[in-house]
Design goal:
The protein has 248 residues and is an alpha+beta fold. Helix content is 15%, strand content 34%.
């Protein structure tokens, strides 16, 4: 079916729609002399015999020889009518909701399959050259009734400002080279508090520095991370020798 392109708002209207020949969007009268192919320079090119008696529609003149110049053929408007189809917005919205639900379910399922880390403090302060941020390690409820290994990595970047003195509780295994990695054995629903004891390194640390722990599911495959910020205090001053007594 051919449509009529409104010259005011560019909307398409079709014969048979309620209100036609008015535009369904802006209500412009689409059947009037100035929109006729026989009109030129404000004058009708037809003689009175061909034109016949003028008719009125909403105060706008037209005649039975009216031929609209606003017609858009079906082939030209196939794509436009598809976009104007009221089913499109509903279909797009439904697809977006389904995709969002799938992403939420995927993220929730991913978290439920692996232990999670959380920092107990957002900020800790270095005192007397030492600091001990703490983290909570939690196994999911469907993890395992038997102890399963969980690998924790202290993200590199602390040295040489900070050195790992020890990790509490004592891990079941510990790496000897490269990034600091430890292993704990957890069962379903178990929560463990991990304390990372750090000492000031060989160079003065920056005013603030993050320490990050991550749960590994494989090499460079982090499934959970937690971050605490270390605020450095002033470096301890070396003891000064007492001044010598004045000479007698």
């Amino acid at each position: 079916m051919d449509g009529y392109r409104c010259p005011r708002c560019s909307a398409l209207s079709y014969p048979g729609l309620m209100g036609f020949p008015r535009c369904h969007r802006c209500h412009e009268q689409l059947r009037q002399c100035r929109y006729c192919t026989h009109e030129s320079g404000g004058l009708c090119t037809l003689d009175e015999t061909a034109r016949g008696r003028l008719l009125q529609e909403d105060g706008r003149p037209y005649c039975r020889a009216f031929a609209s110049r606003l017609v858009v053929t079906g082939d030209e408007d196939r794509f436009g009518r598809a976009l104007l189809n009221p089913a499109w917005p509903t279909a797009l919205l439904t697809a977006a909701v389904i995709l969002l639900a799938a992403l939420i379910a995927w993220a929730a399922g991913r978290e439920a399959l692996h232990p999670q880390l959380a920092a107990r403090e957002a900020l800790v302060t270095l005192r007397e050259g030492r600091v001990a941020p703490t983290f909570l390690l939690s196994a999911p409820p469907n993890w395992s009734r038997q102890p399963r290994p969980v690998f924790i990595q202290v993200e590199p970047g602390l040295a040489p400002s900070y050195l790992v003195e020890r990790i509490e509780p004592v891990p079941a295994a510990e790496s000897t080279g490269g990034p600091k990695e430890v292993r704990y054995d957890l069962v379903s629903g178990q929560t463990m508090m991990i304390r990372l004891r750090l000492v000031r390194g060989q160079i003065d640390p920056p005013p603030e520095m993050p320490v990050i722990l991550s749960v590994l599911a494989g090499p460079d495959n982090r499934v959970s991370s937690a971050r605490t910020l270390i605020r450095a205090g002033r470096a301890p001053r070396p003891p000064t020798a007492p001044a010598p007594p004045p000479p007698p």
